[in-house]
Amino acid sequence: MASATITSKGQITIPQEIRDYLNLDTGSKVDFVIDENGAVKLIPLNVPIQSLSGLLHRPGMKSATLEEMEVAIQEGSSDWT
Q1: Predicted TM-score (pTM) above 0.70
Q2: How many structural domains comprise the chain?
């Protein structure tokens, strides 16, 4: 198991074996996602979006249509105005 230590600035160095596995290099971008079980996942943003399909799926959860996503975006953005 790979591990890392958090610095006083809240930074970590991602272990080499993890960087190699995720194909991360200097300048790569990543996202952190908290799943339904509370586990934190590191998601490389240098991968095709199709490979992320179903990543956050929960059993029994229905897929949203594009229209439903647009409505949710609109409703969420109205909170910022």
Answers
A1: no
A2: 1
